[in-house]
Amino acid sequence: MCTWRSKFCPLGLIWCLVFLGACATTAQPPNLGDLKQVVLAYHKDGRYEKDIEYVINEAREYLKRYPAESDKPLSIVLDIDETSLTNWPVIKNENRNVSNDNDFGYIKIAGDKCDDYPEAWNCWIEKATALPIKPTRDLYLEAQELKKFTVFFISARLDYEGPATQRNLNGSGFSGTYCLILRPSGPTDERYKLPDSSVTAFKNPPGCTLPVSVDTAAKTAERCKLTDSTVAAFKTAERCKLTEQGWKIVANIGDQPSDLEGGYAERIFLLPNPFYRIR
């Protein structure tokens, strides 16, 4: 046990620092197994849903009070996973009748192996059966009724997952008109593409893109270029593009700090998510 005291510091600052470094101890991190049980209890006993409702209610009151008169078209940005749709069945793998579940893992497999690994993330997306997060869906429908906001879903899902994502949103009650922005896929993503996932490219309805001049488009491309390969950088760049086109983003709602970092929104609302972290 280290019993050295700071009264010996006059012996020399360097020696003090060396001695302190040798005697320093680091706190043991919490046990992962215990933390998983805490998270499971948080989801099971209703606190998770109540915390979502609390944040969504704050957003609801804000949007209701927001004036419809504006010199720019008004928009709301929503994330999808654990913001609009819940992936709890695949997070804990409740759909697979085996003794060992996913246990908060993240699994992606080759697209032709879904029969063997139905819990894999890309297979789950293609099924398009994720249930809605009801407070967010209700907020979305209320925003549609107000007829003063255009809703953009900005997600880290890949572009070839667009048709399945639209099927899931539409089938989960996100009716009406919305715009969908997904992350461009790259060469390393091809092995995870399901055989039929690219048959039909997803399309956004008219009105999702505002007309701009060639000069403005060039300036937007320069101002809003990606700074790195993180999800935070992608989402920031997409909100930048919307702003440069002329949209006013009055609210940005997500469950990850990376959904909200980088600005380009008047208000941000962070939903709870203790299950995973996306940078």
Q: Layout of helices and strands, plus pairs?
A:
Blueprint: H1 13-23, H2 32-44, H3 47-65, E1 74-78, E2 85-86, H4 88-91, H5 121-127, E3 131-132, H6 134-146, E4 150-158, H7 162-171, E5 179-183, H8 214-223, H9 231-245, E6 248-254, H10 257-260, E7 268-270
Parallel strand pairs: 1-4, 1-6, 4-5, 6-7
Antiparallel strand pairs: 2-3
Helix pairs in contact: 3-6, 8-9
Task: Tell me what you see in this structure.
This protein has a domain at 46-87 and 131-270: HAD superfamily/HAD-like (Rossmann fold, 3-Layer(aba) Sandwich), CATH 3.40.50.1000. Helix 3 runs parallel beside helix 6 and helix 8 (214-223) packs antiparallel against helix 9. It is α/β, with parallel strands linked by helices and 279 residues long. 29% of the residues are buried. The chain has helices spanning 13-23, 32-44, 47-65, 88-91, 121-127, 134-146, 162-171, 214-223, 231-245, 257-260, and strands at residues 74-78, 85-86, 131-132, 150-158, 179-183, 248-254, 268-270. Residues 1-11 have low confidence and may be disordered. It is globular. It has a five-stranded parallel β-sheet, sandwiched between helices. The protein is 38% helix and 12% strand.
Helix content: 25-40%
Unreliable segments of 5+ consecutive residues:
1-11
CATH C-level label of the domain at 46-87 and 131-270: Alpha Beta
State which percent range the strand residues make up.
5-15%
Mean pLDDT: 86
| Strand order in the largest sheet | 5-4-1-6-7
Total number of β-strand segments? 7
Written as H for each helix and E for each strand, in order along the chain, the element string is: HHHEEHHEHEHEHHEHE
Structural category: alpha/beta
In angstroms, what separates the terminal alpha carbons? 39 Å
CATH architecture of the domain at 46-87 and 131-270: 3-Layer(aba) Sandwich
The CATH superfamily of the domain at 46-87 and 131-270 turns out to be HAD superfamily/HAD-like
Shape: globular
Helix count from the secondary structure assignment: 10
Radius of gyration: 23 Å
Could you say what the CATH topology of the domain at 46-87 and 131-270 is called? Answer: Rossmann fold
Major beta sheet summary: 5 strands, parallel
